[in-house]
Amino acid sequence: MRVVEDSPVIARADRSRSLAIRMVDSPGEVTCIFDPEVQVAVWRRDLGKFAASHSARSSAERNFGTGFRKVFRADDSLGDELSEALKGQPAIAPDVVRLAELYADLLGCEAIGLRYEVVDGAMCPGFHVDRTGIRLLCTYRGPGTQWIDDRHADRSKLGPGSGGLPDHLSGLFGPGTQVQEAALGDVVLLKGSSWQGNVGRGAIHRSPAVDPGQAPRVLVAMDALWI
Q1: Could you state, in order of their start, the residue ranges of all structural domains in the chain?
Q2: In this structure, are strands 187-191 and 40-43 parallel, antiparallel, or unpaired?
Q3: What is the CA radius of gyration of the chain?
Q4: How many angstroms separate the CA atoms of 163 and 157, rounded?
Q5: Domain 2-225 is in which class?
Q6: Structure confidence by residue, pLDDT tens digits, 40-51
Q7: Contact yes or no for 112/167 (Cβ under 8 A)
Q8: If you write DSSP's letter for every residue of 134-187 in order, what string do you get?
Q9: Is pTM beyond 0.85 here?
């Protein structure tokens, strides 16, 4: 995890500093996202070499694909259907299947809305809060999702409240704000404002800028659905 240009530099998030952001080291600990105070939970995984290998191989083969958005039922066929949908990405398909099964079990949902994104720029470049429940994100190539601790943020400066100014000039950032970025392979759970009891809160996050010389960015996003 690193800190970007418009914030102080830190080497690693201190899990004792914030109730809203939790860093965990095992899949069993991601249940911390259900804590009413927690807005961001990050399962730190040592997938750097895997992700770099996948990135280099896909770059050489120009085999990232164009991405897709599809709903998968969270039943016994989930793994087979996901593997089929990601058959052009054999390096990451098994990992996406594992994450989908973990996510479905965590949320107890009937279906998963899954996005496999291959993008050349920031999809949501400004800091914002999603009107969702709990979203899972994992980046396999390029920079990871970024977020800030809401203890130091002025939420009134989100969206139209910014007055058209960039985040670092709008007043969104307070003293001590640090823009943190997930590493390759990290599993990020973001709690949205639609989660029960979370009105007026939600993870403040954004998509990172993508260096044209390093594009595209490859990531997977999952949303729980009840259909």
Answers
A1: 2-225
A2: antiparallel
A3: 17
A4: 8
A5: mainly beta
A6: 999 999 765 555
A7: no
A8: EEEEEEEESPPPEEE-GGGB-GGGSGGGGTT--HHHHT-B-TT---EEPPTT-E
A9: yes
